[in-house]
Design brief:
single chain; 690 residues; seven-stranded antiparallel sheet; two-stranded antiparallel ribbon; globular; alpha+beta; 21 helices
Length: 690
């Protein structure tokens, strides 16, 4: 997650004098690379993935935050062994989280090499299990969001549950009603990030998630209470009227009927995901890849949905995205267009006596964690992108002019970077404020905290060809982690086929649609069962740039089933099938479904990877979010009150443990196992463990 520098992070009030200096240094570092970008060329296709896990007590199925030494030992005593096994482990926001990746990026030489991601995913957990997890009777849970995060007694470490006897020393960074600061990684960057985001916005974090409505659903979130511990405490009001997220005084929050109130960065950044990153041959290829992947983000987010529960409630959302977006939204009230701003601390803005901002400050439509904002353009299309960049986006005008001038008038690339630089650096390390030449920390301070659905990653050093330094890369960020390594590998395989297809010199397909449609698609993808009930703007027919009359494509609204399977622009039927043919995995007249008929274990596994995606898209199989929700709603102790009790939570996680190992034993375990995978895929996984 972002930049883990060594040093002393400054509190927000101490950041303010350095904000512009750090941003200017960041632009200097950016231009140091970008002015020589033509020298970065001929880079091989390499890619990698990141998985994040939740560490829980195996007996109680509750989160544990007292095992920091595991990551320390993995990166010290066991570092050489990890490297030899192609494994590396990283800290994440939560002290209960572990991120794991391959040590070396993937490269492909034959069909069997496409199985390496799943094999590596299995090895990541096996290695850490053998070294630590099994000995301590812990468990690494592959679930996007722990269902009872923030509820009473959600921690197995009992000393951190409850309010404690000294409230003035509790939750000083988050000021949360529900999450103790101990759930935050102890690296100084993370608690400082938590506190500084809250201080910059000058008000408590506030998101209200719609509940899934059942017969006995409480009218209001009954876990919320008033208190007076900290400077940013708010009073909670319940009313049918005035359901805005905050009153203009920023000291009162109206609780919305049938909504779940959450109040801290940990609820968002404490969720787990699957992210993949792809290296392109050069700058222009990377720009084309970035632009082309935009409309895939919403579709694959919806298909990977795996987070229906928040703070012990059943929600009406399936995905984590909007939760994280709100939890790290550092915009002031003025920037977020509320025209309200408490000027008593935090950002020193000019304001009148009522708190109405009078100085110059931009309105910003979205959180710094959001969907993408602008197309980059590439050498395949005209420089004028007004047809596709059809939404109003704020940008730093001074940065825009500087980057445009240095990059020979490239307004599209300049606008992308200038848009990133409307954000302030949230965490500044005192020791490196003046360091510019030897690293890219100031640029990454901005780039790595613009958490968008895609990230355009620039090299930190100039190199070409097979030199080990990374080139231009694109990170695909929306996917939710899946309950099994097979499912995570399936999404990775699908994206691998899509990216290789896009980057192939033979492709030359125009994937551009209006950005407003990209936004519309993404916004609806988080909702309950969006995979079946919603329609998305999708290109009617894939065509090459030579065959297009204009840059923007004609779109129609399609279900995700249609997007995957239609004959003219289907992800599986056109993109994946074409790439499988190019790789020689199937013949010219075959489709992806013909992989099954080969007497070849590797190709058959590819078939089942794609079948999982296909069957979810058609509704033949549920998403993992839908499966979890059904499990809870049908549990024998569920009271139709939209709540995930400790008993239900324990049983659900025990069920997912059987799913992960493809080892259902009891009749109930088999019922839920085959509900998730179906009979054909379920039997295949039992018989064909890697």
């Amino acid at each position: 997650m972002g930049l883990l520098a060594v040093g002393t992070p400054l509190q927000w009030e101490d950041n303010i004098p350095y904000l512009e200096k750090v941003k200017q240094n960041g632009v200097t570092q950016l231009l140091k690379i970008m002015t020589r970008s033509n020298e970065v060329k001929g880079k091989p296709f390499l890619w990698g993935d990141e998985l994040e896990y939740v560490l829980i007590d195996n007996k109680t199925n509750k989160i544990t935050v007292n095992n920091d030494d595991i990551l320390i030992k993995l990166n010290t005593d066991l570092e050489a062994e990890c490297k030899q096994k192609d494994l590396v482990y990283h800290p994440e926001y939560g002290s209960y989280m572990i991120e794991a990746t391959p040590y070396f990026p993937y490269a492909h030489s034959d069909a069997e090499s496409y199985l390496k991601p799943e094999i590596n995913m299995i090895l990541r957990k096996k290695f850490i299990n053998e070294k630590f997890i099994n000995k301590r009777d812990l468990y690494l849970l592959q679930m996007t969001n722990y269902p009872r995060l923030g509820c009473k007694n959600f921690l197995s470490d009992s000393e951190f549950n409850g309010e404690g006897s000294d409230p003035q020393n509790k939750n000083v960074f988050s000021q949360s009603l529900f999450l103790p600061d101990e759930i935050t990684n102890k690296h100084p960057r993370f608690p400082t990030l938590t506190g500084n985001i809250r201080k910059r916005r000058n008000r408590k974090v506030d998101l209200q998630i719609p509940m899934f409505i059942d017969e006995n659903t409480p009218k209001f979130d009954d876990s919320v209470y008033n208190r007076d511990w900290f400077d940013m405490d708010v009073k909670f009001l319940t009313s049918e009227k005035g359901v805005s997220s905050a009153d203009t005084d920023l000291k009162s929050y109206r609780l919305r009927p049938n909504h779940i109130y959450i109040d801290a960065m940990g609820f968002g950044m404490g969720a787990c995901c699957l992210q993949t990153t792809y290296q392109a041959p050069d700058l222009e290829s990377a720009r084309y890849l970035y632009d082309s992947l935009m409309n895939f983000t919403s579709v694959l987010l919806s298909v990977s949905a795996n987070s229906p529960f928040w703070k012990g409630f059943v929600s009406d959302w399936d995905c984590r995205w909007e939760v994280i977006s709100s939890m790290v939204d550092c915009r002031t009230g003025f920037e977020a267009n509320t025209d309200a701003h408490d000027n008593s601390y935090g950002y020193n803005l000019a304001a009148d006596d009522t708190g109405l901002v009078t100085g110059d400050l931009q309105k910003i439509k979205k959180s710094r964690y959001s969907k993408v904002d602008v197309y980059l353009g590439c050498d395949k299309i005209p420089k004028d992108l007004s047809q596709v960049n059809d939404v109003e986006v704020s940008y730093n005008e001074a940065v825009f002019e500087r980057v445009k001038n240095e990059l020979n008038g490239d307004e599209n690339l300049a606008k992308h970077f200038a848009h990133l630089f409307i954000r302030d650096p949230i965490v500044i390390f005192e020791e490196n404020v003046d360091e510019v030449d030897e690293n890219m920390d100031h640029f990454e301070n901005i780039n790595s905290t613009n958490w968008q659905s895609l990230r355009f990653k620039i090299p930190h050093k100039i190199s070409n060809g097979d030199a080990p330094e990374p080139g231009f890369r694109v990170e695909f960020r929306p996917l939710e982690i899946q309950l099994t390594d097979f499912a995570n590998a399936a999404f990775s395989f699908l994206l691998n086929m899509i990216v290789q297809f896009i980057l192939s010199p033979e492709t030359n397909i125009n994937f551009y649609i209006e950005m407003s449609k990209v936004w519309s698609n993404f916004d609806q993808s988080i909702g309950r069962n969006s995979i079946l009930k919603d329609k998305y703007h999708w290109i009617q027919k894939f065509e090459t740039f030579d065959g297009c009359e204009q840059v923007v494509n004609k779109t129609v609204q399609m279900s995700i089933d249609q997007i995957m399977h239609n004959k003219d622009s289907g992800i599986l039927t056109t993109i994946v099938t074409s790439q499988l043919i190019r790789l020689g995995f199937i013949t010219e007249n075959e489709t992806w479904e013909d992989l099954k008929k080969y007497n070849d274990d590797t190709k058959q596994r590819f078939y089942f990877y794609l079948k999982l995606i296909s069957d979810r898209s058609s509704g033949s199989l549920p998403t993992e979010a839908a499966w979890q929700r059904e499990y809870v709603l049908s549990h024998h102790s569920y009271s139709k009150d939209s709540k995930v009790t400790e008993e239900i939570n324990t049983d659900l996680i025990n069920c997912t443990k059987k799913v992960y190992n493809y080892s259902p034993v009891t009749a109930e375990e088999k019922e839920w196992y085959f509900k998730l995978f179906g009979n054909e895929l379920g039997e295949y996984l039992i018989q064909n463990r890697l």
